[in-house]
Amino acid sequence: MTTYAFDEERHAIVAFWETGSGCAARTFAELPGDVPADAVRHLARALTRLSGRVWRTYTHPASAADVQEVNGEVRRRRQEREAFGSVAGALAKPNLPSDGTLTVSYNPVEECAHRVGRALHDIGDAELSRRVGAEVRDELEAIEQAELGDLTGRARQALALTRADASPVQVQAADRILHANPFGGPSLFTEVEPAAAAIAAAHWLQAAADVTSETTGYATTEIIQEADGIEALAHETPTLVLEQLELGLSPYETVTTLIRGAMIVAEGRIPDLDELLEHVGEAEILARHHHDPGFRGTLLKRLRTTPLDPARPAHDLLEDILDGIRGCWLIYQEDASEDDGDFADEVRAEADSKRERLT
Prior knowledge:
60% helix; mainly alpha; 3-stranded antiparallel beta sheet; 3 strands
């Protein structure tokens, strides 16, 4: 999302956003000196809130909503995305106080746009209103571009965000990067949205684990734990990914389930209460078995509602999966004989032969 700030020295509004490889910024409006600083700061804050809300339609698309929810989450998300068409009108003709009352929209996107419009109305500068309208239009177009899987230009903001869904275009882009280098590389983080990159990486992790298992005899779900004895690795999450893939879930299902769960945790909610209670029960049983009251507290403190970092779940998952691929290579390198082939070539062949997992 874009953050807007008031440059007091130049009396201007600056827009800046993360791109996945550093921030980009531009000054889009310089204001007359007689415009009060507080009014400009108020406008900058309203623009930041609007940007956050419209980018939420990208990170939380209707396609990723739980259709079982009785509160109409799918419908609400669709309505917020459809409100893009009413933003320009709200900026130009916002709801204003009348007789001590103010009409407030139930649609968060519309209401954020009305707030920007009211801030512009209070300032009363036609040129500023024109520039803000153009700025907001650019922001909406960047989101529309990102939804299509094109992350060039201003749409590069998507590289810094976690999305609960993934563009097939971006998944294929990540797959091409991994085909060139099965261990990944910086371009997975600077050119591809992280959720899509994690989906492709999960496919390559499974290929790496299958190759390593066939060569060394280790079960696929044991490999990364074993590799952690050679080199410190983030072994728990990639092992969980391999366990889910072994159960028959696709890379898409596995990755998006983990990411969506972490996004729910980031909102202060529990993604799967039954699973959490099951883990609590297991900890209680284990503590009773050890006859140690203090052990119970230790076990319960270790419980997590998500294995990922809720602040950056897709990026965290991608990093862990790439760690898992490296773990496969460590075991392969240690146990393979001279007659075995090149690890990267064998993984490429395995990944190519099972490409239907990515569709």
